[in-house]
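testing teh design pipeline on a random one, pls ignore if ur not involved
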C-alpha cells in the first residue's frame, strides 16, 4: 500500500473558487516526489489540501499510517514563549517519546545542525536560515513515514542545504516517503525520483526525469529545459 494516496477533484479556500483541479498521485516507500513549479502554481494549495487546511475540496486523501507525517512549512512557525529546547521537549511529550530518547535525538540533531549553542534562546530571534534549520530538526525528531516539505531551500546556506539533503536521503533509505515542493529545479533534478510539474493551476507533466524528457521530446534535457518546453506548449495551445 502507498504511504500516501492523493486524488483531488478540486480544492480551494472558498467553496465557489477552485484553485487546483484533477491532482492524482501516490507516494511510495523510499521515494522523493518533487512538486515543481513557479510561485502561484498551486503547489502550496496541494500541500494544504493534503493536510486538510484548505477548507474546501472534493476527493480522497489517504495516509497508510493514520496521518503519520511531519510537515515543514515554507515560513517557519514557532510558539513565541518557548525556547528551541522547550519546543523539542513539547514534541517529545506530544509524541510520548521516552525522556532519554527525545533528549538523545534532540541533542544529536542540535549538534548536527549547529544549533546546540542556541537551544535555550527563542527561535523568533534567529536568522531565517537558523529558523529553517530548527523546523528541519522538528520534522526529524519523530521519524514519521511521510515528510511533506514546502520550499525547503529558502534561507539555507550551501552547507545547511547539503546537510538537509543528506538527512532526506537517510530517511529515504530507511523507507520514508518525501513530498517536496520547490522551484529550485536543478537541485530537485538531482534528488527527486519523480516529478509533478505544475503550471498555472494545471499539471504540465508527471513522471520520472526520463518520462518528463519523453513528454517534452528532449532526450537529454535538464528538468529546467523540459519544464520550459512543456509550459510553452501549454501556453501555445491556449493562445
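output:
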Amino acid at each position: 500500500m502507498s504511504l500516501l494516496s492523493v486524488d483531488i477533484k478540486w480544492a480551494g479556500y472558498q467553496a465557489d473558487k477552485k484553485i487546483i483541479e484533477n491532482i492524482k498521485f501516490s507516494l511510495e516507500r523510499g521515494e522523493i516526489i518533487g512538486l515543481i513549479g513557479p510561485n502561484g502554481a498551486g503547489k502550496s494549495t496541494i500541500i494544504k489540501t493534503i493536510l486538510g487546511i484548505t477548507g474546501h475540496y472534493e476527493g480522497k486523501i489517504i495516509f497508510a499510517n493514520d496521518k503519520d507525517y511531519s510537515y515543514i512549512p515554507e515560513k517557519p512557525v514557532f510558539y513565541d514563549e518557548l525556547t528551541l529546547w522547550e519546543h523539542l521537549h513539547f514534541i517529545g511529550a506530544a509524541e510520548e517519546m521516552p525522556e532519554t530518547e527525545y533528549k538523545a535525538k534532540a541533542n544529536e540533531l542540535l549538534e548536527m545542525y549547529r544549533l546546540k549553542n542556541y537551544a535555550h534562546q527563542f527561535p523568533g530571534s534567529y536568522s531565517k536560515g537558523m529558523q529553517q534549520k530548527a523546523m528541519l530538526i522538528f520534522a526529524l525528531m519523530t521519524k514519521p513515514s511521510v515528510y511533506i516539505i514546502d520550499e525547503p531551500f529558502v534561507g539555507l546556506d550551501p552547507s545547511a542545504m547539503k546537510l538537509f539533503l543528506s538527512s532526506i536521503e537517510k530517511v529515504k533509505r530507511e523507507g520514508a516517503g518525501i513530498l517536496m515542493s520547490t522551484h529550485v529545479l536543478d537541485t530537485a533534478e538531482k534528488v527527486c525520483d519523480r516529478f509533478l510539474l505544475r503550471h498555472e493551476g494545471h499539471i504540465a507533466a508527471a513522471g520520472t526525469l526520463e518520462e518528463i524528457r519523453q513528454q517534452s521530446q528532449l532526450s537529454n534535457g535538464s528538468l529546467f529545459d523540459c519544464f520550459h518546453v512543456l509550459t510553452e506548449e501549454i501556453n501555445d495551445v491556449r493562445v
